[in-house]
Give the backbone structure.
Amino acid sequence: MKFYLLTGLVAGCLAAPQYGPVGATNENQRAPSPTCTTQYTTVWDTEYVETETQACTTAYVTKCNTVTRQQCDQVPRQRCQTVVDRQCTPFTRTVCEDSVRTVSEPYTETDCKTEYKEDCEYQWEGQGQAKVWVPIAGTCKKNPYETCNDVTRQRQRQVPHQVCRDVQDQKCVNVPRQSCRTEYEEVCVQKPEQQCTKVPQQDCNSVHKKVPKRVSRKVPKRVCGNNNNNIGEFDVETFDSADNIIDVRSRDAIKFE
């Protein structure tokens, strides 16, 4: 708005109509010098102030901690041990014993016996073909004679022999095996677990914004006027310094928008 005002003042000065009689010189056309004073007035403007604030909201978040807890369970276990079973198998075996028995045994034995036989002196008696040996009387005597013959006889004797018989028996061996049983024992382990709770937590964000702010300042204003009329008290705002003031004719009407 202020820059438009300054531009309008310059354009108004250049385009202002010339007053006075036609053909008059510039000196005759020059208006009387106005009386100008410098006054200070308050002008308002809008400045934007950058602000940065923290916008926070409270949210509940889950916070978890790991804790260790002892957990015990009954665990089945196999308890085994080696035992010996005696296994027997029946069978038949022959048992023999030494014994003695009486047997008849044939044998040959020479059996001799004594016989008495007369031995005599003999002489021939007779004639011709009838001649024979005749014992001489008084010469005979009995002499013993052994007569032996082989005779088969039987005799008893004891001979050893084995007496055998079949008996029932069994053959046994020791057979090892595993004997197991189920036992329950308590086994405890340290087990981690999560413990969670809801805790409040501030969730903050930076809010960066521009906030309009109305500010005022004093600026110099040159007020010029003509003693013959009351047209044209013009306020000119200076933005840089008080020396930057534009002269305007007192009769030029300037419209401020």
Remarks:
- Residues 57 and 203 are 5 Å apart (CA to CA).
- Residues 69-194 form one domain.
